[in-house]
Amino acid sequence: MQLIVYRGTHEIGGSCVELKATSTRLILDVGLPLVNADREPFDQRRIRGKSIDELIAEGTVPSVPGLFTAGPTPDAILLSHSHLDHVGLLKFTNSDIPIYASKGTSQMMKAGAVFSRQQELDRNRHREVSSKRKFTIGEFTVTPYPVDHSSYGAYAFLLEADGQSLLYSGDLRMHGRKPGMVKDLIADVRSRNIDVLLMEGTHFGSERPEDRNEYQLEKDILELIKTAPALVLAAFSPIDVDRLVTYYKATRQAGRTFVVDAYAAFVMHLVSGKSGIPAPQRTSGIRVLFNTAFAKRHIQKLEKLFEKDQITLDEMLTEPGKYTMVFRPSMVKLDFDGTLPQYSRCLYSYWQGYLTKPDWVELQEQLAGVQGDFFPAHTSGHIYVKDIIRFVEAINPQTVIPIHTFEPEQYHQHFPNVRVLEDGEVFEIA
To answer: What is the reported pLDDT for 210?
Structure first.
């Protein structure tokens, strides 16, 4: 087999990998960059209105033969999960290439398409994968393994051809609500002779604390909700279903009602009964707010679906201390007429790097203006370094190749069999 990491050898996000056997080419993920050259958050508006040639010339789209432009096309694209730094370039790919992804990834992409102007997975191209159900693409046998990540429906892939094997970790963690997923993967794979482990290393070189798991975070959030004097604003991504569960459980334990927007309600509707979270219904302590951004869309099917469980902002503001509300900064202007309720508390559950963006800076100023407060309340969706070490030692591959990391050289401090590649370098799996 032959491996080329087109992007991701020295970068977090923007993953795009090619794996080739004698006559079969597979692409693993097709992601937008997460950050720019200065490691500031990548502005997605940069891609609007540009041709594919312009995007390739500037480096936003990697130059992969036949994937984005004319030429012999790859046989398939495999998506590990729905985050844009793994699927954000899908709309530029040749439309005759089939796409293999989990049902959960398809569902999260559908929600992102409806509410965040992202791309829905083309049902004509989609080939659904499921846990440990092997399938073949040309010379490759592919085994998908569900993993715990901050996007519902994430998978790792074991790929075998020509008597060789590669395990692609995708993005995963061992400190979420479902650590058993990765343990099952290890148990199934550790007895095999894995030639190459393509291993994510987001936390190498990171200053982010490696302490809390999702259950500990739930306790922290519960305390912040219980001690809040008024309305609690919960800022997080709805496709992070683990975090939806965390906020829902903490809110109910604090004796409050969980108010979700239509985006979060739709995600809950899609995955209810599968992830420890109910459908969005008032009988479960959940109400749905049709905020201004959603109301402008006039999506009648969703309006009808959630109509009986709807709550208005006026109803909430009569007793704001009874509610925890899914929130984003744009709502200050669109829904609160520029002024948040007195003593509001915002809990921030995103990557810390986004806090430099103007909307989050302005939000903290707005909170201060109403004697409110702001608390980061987050744990990473990516595997901690100590768990990377455990994972790699358990898999015991012949070669470890870093991906999804700014610090690939740090792998050498922990493993004797590391090969650090450059973007675009051809690696022959011996």
So the answer is: 79
DSSP state of 172: -
Full domain range(s) for residue 273:
214-376
CA-based nearest residue to 287, from 263, 255, 272, 309? 309
Closest of 150, 149, 100, 151 to residue 122, by C-alpha: 100
| DSSP assignment letter at 90 | G
pLDDT at 335: 96
Own/partner contacts of 310-314, CB < 8 Å, gap of 24 or more, are 311/257, 311/259, 311/287, 313/289
The CATH number covering residue 404 comes to 3.60.15.10
The answer to whether 256 and 278 are in contact (CB under 8 A) is: no
Tell me the CA end-to-end span of the chain in Å, nearest whole number.
8
Within this chain, do residues 392 and 364 fall inside the same structural domain, yes or no?
no
pLDDT of residue 353: 81
Extended beta strands in 76-162, E state = 76-78, 99-102, 126-129, 135-137, 140-146, 155-161
Residues ≥6 apart with Cβ < 8 Å to 104: 82, 152, 153, 154, 271
Beta pairing partners, 101: 128
pLDDT at site 44: 82
Residue 267 identity (one-letter amino acid)? V
> Splitting the chain (430 residues) into consecutive groups of 10 residues, what average pLDDT does each group show?
97 96 96 83 84 93 94 97 96 96 96 90 97 98 97 97 96 96 96 96 85 94 98 96 96 98 96 87 96 88 94 96 97 96 97 89 97 96 96 98 97 97 96
Q: Specify whether 226 is located in the same domain as 248.
A: yes
